[in-house]
Amino acid sequence: MHDSDNNNKLDGCELIKSLIHWHEQGSKEQPNGEKPHVEEKVFSDEELVALIDPILQMDDTSRDGYIDYPEFIKAQQKAAEKQQQQQQQQPHEQQQQQQQPVH
């Protein structure tokens, strides 16, 4: 993440910068030299609020308007656990689909 003001906390503006950086990294050249097709988008204030507010609501457990380092680590752990659960469910769901008779 990008703690621009070095206060060991992330605010809404820093979260936006992080999302933009993440998006820009996704549009870099591929190993084969090709650049992926990425449409540039200018977000309205309302769209930015819709992106950032849920992150702050979910991860800012102290409700001070910032995500401090312990809150960030906790959020990353929750995200990793959720991803692991989803990965464990996928083979089970695929197996169930394969066992269903086709009509």
TrEMBL record:
Query: Does Endoplasmic reticulum count among this protein's keywords?
Result: no
Write out the ranges of the annotated region (Disordered): 22-41, 69-103
A GO molecular function term, named singly, is: calcium ion binding
The family database entries (SUPFAM superfamilies) matched by this protein are listed as: EF-hand
Checking Pfam families in the record gives: EF-hand_7
Compositional bias, Low complexity, is annotated for: 76-103
Per its record, how is this protein called by name? GM25092
Its lineage opens with:
Eukaryota, Metazoa, Ecdysozoa, Arthropoda, Hexapoda
Q: Which gene encodes it?
A: Dsec\GM25092
